[in-house]
Amino acid sequence: MTTAEADSLVVEGVNVTERVAEIEAQGYTLIPDFIQADEIARIRHAFDTEVQITEMRAIGTDTGKTLRAHNLLAKTRAVDYLFLDPRIRALIEGVLGSRVQINVTTLFNILPGETKQFLHQDDGLWPIKRPHPHFVCNALIALDDFDVENGATHIVPYSHSWHDRPVDQSVETLQVTMSAGTMLMWEGGLWHGGGANTSPDRERLGFFMSHNVAYLRPQEIQLLSVPRNVAVQLPKMLQRLLGYHQFGLGVDGRDPIDVLKDGNVINPSAQVAWWRD
Ligand SMILES: O=C(O)CCC(=O)C(=O)O
Description:
Helix content is 26%, strand content 19%. The chain has helices spanning 3-7, 16-26, 37-50, 72-75, 80-84, 86-96, 222-225, 228-231, 236-242, 256-262, and strands at 10-11, 14-15, 28-31, 66-70, 100-110, 136-142, 154-155, 174-175, 183-187, 192-193, 204-213. Strands 3-9-6-11-5-4 form a 6-stranded antiparallel sheet. The chain has a 3-stranded antiparallel sheet with strand order 8-7-10, with no helix packed on it. A two-stranded antiparallel ribbon has the order 1-2. The protein starts with a helix and ends in a 15-residue tail after the last helix.
């Protein structure tokens, strides 16, 4: 074993140190076989039976031929385990640091006839001047085989560090072919977009998990999106990731998870004038 290997953090077969270095350097990493066929079948079944499609066009296309569903953690328990997966946790922490939360949960199903999406940056929503520390890190797990014909994601390697220019739609892209189960993870500044699905009959289903740093607002407000009666039953780590994390004063000085449980936002021991008595 080389010194570099010995110093690497390896989590369940994923060399996190190397993967994070790749994301830092080129803006993305590609991990084949991240999930297996039985997991894909379970997630696909849950998406088919529990999750309603959201009427929303893909960014930059007007065909309506991308089916999307958001707010997945309100609707199904089938992907909780992926947010808790030690490999995901370590990779996200490696890129964003330890104080993170869930930003967006989505399924994208690109149907035949969909056109190419505009290249965009997922961290462009927050008006923070570039260069800035990484604050968004995203993953797309292929649930179908993604290829050039059915709309594999376009990315522009290294573009996360091109701070001197806006996104250029004419730039050469790399279309990332992935067999089902592969995960593409990228830094939020990477220029990317869904591909055109020119196949006659093949869908392209992917599961998208986005994290951002816990001190910025998430794009989808998880605290509202996942109803309280659902959130209260989730594992503590997932509750933290939804935004029930300690941040400064908490709620009346209490841990937000305690407040999630008892709903009491009035500190019962408050005595406004105790010192005058
Ligand atoms: O489906 C893809 O390949 C990427 C989709 C995407 O980036 C988006 O809809 O914002």
